[in-house]
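Input record (Table S2, row 298):
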Amino acid sequence: MLIAYDPIYAHPLPEGHRFPMVKYELIPAQLLREGIITENQILKPAPLEEDIILQTHTLHYWRQLQQQTLSDKEQRRIGLPQSPALTLREITISRGTIDCALHALEHGVALNVAGGTHHAFADRGEGFCLLNDFAIASNYLLSQHHVKKVLIIDLDVHQGNGTAALFMGNDHVYTFSMHGAHNYPFHKEVSDWDVPLPDGMNDNDYLRTLQDCLPVLINKVKPDFVFYLSGVDILETDRYGKLKVSAQGCLLRDELVFTTLKKHGIPCAVAMGGGYSTQIKDIVNAHCNTFKAAGEIF
Ligand SMILES: [Zn+2]
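Output record (zinc ion complex):
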């Protein structure tokens, strides 16, 4: 098991910002402390090359990110103030997801400490997402003929709207999103398969729903690669999630995904996605559980 991490992932934001960047420092520290990984399992990704970005994003949008020319309105939609460091962070994270995918093709699984930026569209960002790392990595794997059919399993509590739009009508990438029906984004795009969940859903109902979907997905799509977005904003402690999944339920979710993929011999790259519990330890523990489950099952 390899993990992708660079200190730029925890790029500091102006005071008072609600997006908890600190988790990106705390996750690798806790993984090391608990002995889930060793230093030599941490890969520091390089920034992503432009030609790879342009397989997914428009040249105009990429130039805006490079030259810091997003309008105030565009920055507000993203929810983060533009800066050269933020752009560097995004391209490093996206390269991390590609590196994880390449490692997973050889060894089964790899996890990015950040990423899962599923609200980014070809020509714009929103919801803390600037570049869509799963889309970039999917297009890269396909263009390099590493894979023929990609499945994106998006279990973040928010719909993967950018990913859905990017791959609409694309036969090589199947998008699956299980998300809170009444959560952001309030205008949902159409994934290949959307499973909207009611507010207040508990562990049993959540896990049963996922358990019903996974075998159908694998049989229908027959993917040779999976990207898994393991957002922990499904937790009952999450400020925005609206679901009632416990920490144990969240771990069982990850185990369900990994055991299914392992059983079918499908390699998997994982990105962390969202998590907005009031207590940072709830967020970090849940993300660390994802790494633990991946290490034990693969
Ligand atoms: Zn989310």
